[in-house]
Amino acid sequence: MHSRYTCKDIKGIWSDEARFQNWFDIELIVCEAQAKYGNIPAEAVEKIAESRWACVEVENAVERINEIEKTTKHDVLAFLTHLSNMIGPSAKYIHMGMTSQDLLDTCNAMQINYSMRIIIDRLKNITNVLKKQAKAHKNTICVGRSHGIHAEPTTFGLKLLGHYSAFDRCLRLLQDAIDDICRIKCSGAVGTYSVIDPKIEEYLSDQLGLSSEDVSTQVIPRDRFALLMSYLGIMGGCIENLAVEIRHLQRTEVGEVIEQFTKGQKGSSAMPHKKNPILTENLTGLARLIKSAVAPSLDNIALWHERDISHSSVERVTLPDTFSYVSFALTRLTGVVENMVVDTERMKDNLNFTGGLVYSQQVLLYLINKKRLTREEAYEEVQSSAHQQGSFKENLITNNVLSMDEVNDIFNVGYYIKNVDYIFKKVLNE
After folding, report:
1. Is this structure's pTM higher than 0.70?
2. Are 216 and 189 in contact (CB under 8 A)?
């Protein structure tokens, strides 16, 4: 994780300290289950439990395990050797019937579950702020743009409501997907339970509150992880979509929305006047990193037979980093939306900048419905007046297309916002 874009909560979940503590807890729960079903002595479980601090909480635990790994070239075996060194004879019951991936994938499920819940909280924050701002600007009229060109009037609140709806979909997708994504396994080599009773996995599942994999082979199927990264990638796209909107609206020639510029902030080392949209530019870049994790996660689905390890190096990077980037980006975007400065007067000026071109469809329909022109005739009349020099409104009158009274009646922004309440009610159900 890059320190500049690290979410502290996510960093803690994916730290070496947390990982080894999770590993210990998983091994301890499996030992408890083994003792419950009479496979190992209960006294050994008590000894193992008593050793938790010395094994994984003591200050230099990570360094000790990493030092052992230099010899074993295997992280799980280094961990088990460390436990044996610290616990003594009772350690022989640890990992009984398990394979490394039982430990790794169960730990992954725990870490992903914790991380998903943080992202869910961040999504709730951004949707709450977007809803608040959308309602505040429900009737703030501005020009809508397609292809970057003035199209028809809309409201700034309606723009924000669309982004609210997108993040709300992300929230519901993630909430509904937790069980599908966070699966544990404790079924041994190639997943056949050949030397470990399925009851052990059931006990572990109950204790962790996480479902077990249906058919695990030696690993949890990576389509579950690909689903997760796809959802996070979609969030990256939604983050970028809103960030790009704000960046464009902050351009000098537009000037409708500006990121908060705090006291003492400077925009350029050379040009003191600059107020750059650095936060949303930063979010656009982070979104690229978030989305970049999707393709390798899809590639991880195809493993050799019951397992290979090609997925491992990818996930050691993409899982903690992507969760951290998403959490950081959502937090930053929430602040941008909450503190942005909206220039409603500039929005009015921009709406009127083209001399009424934004009302061209209403003129077209009027000529068809009231003047009885064919669509082709009406389109030619409107386009001709629109493409002439000067004001569209004045051109329509000069060219005898419409009278002054007709123009004043048709050039009415109310036509375009009459159903805004309906859209808000449909989305917010309020």
Report:
1. yes
2. no
Lowest mean pLDDT among 2-11, 197-206, 320-329, 411-420: 2-11
Task: Please state which CATH class domain 3-93 belongs to.
Answer: mainly alpha
Q: Are 30 and 348 in contact (CB under 8 A)?
A: no
CATH of domain 100-261+273-350: 1.20.200.10
The DSSP-derived string for 262-325 is -TT--S-SS-TT----HHHHHHHHHHHHHHHTHHHHHHTT--STT--SHHHHHHHHHHHHHHHH
Pairing between β-strand 341-342 and β-strand 257-258 as defined by DSSP bridges: antiparallel
Q: What is the pLDDT of residue 261?
A: 74
- What's the CA gap between 362 and 397, in Å, rounded? 15
Confidence of residue 33 (pLDDT cuts 50, 70, 90): very high
Catalytic residue numbers?
Answer: 147, 268
Residue 283 has pLDDT above 90, yes or no: yes
Closest CA to 216 of 176, 179, 188: 188
Q: Is the pLDDT of residue 300 over 80?
A: yes
Spans of all domains in the chain: 3-93, 100-261+273-350, 357-410
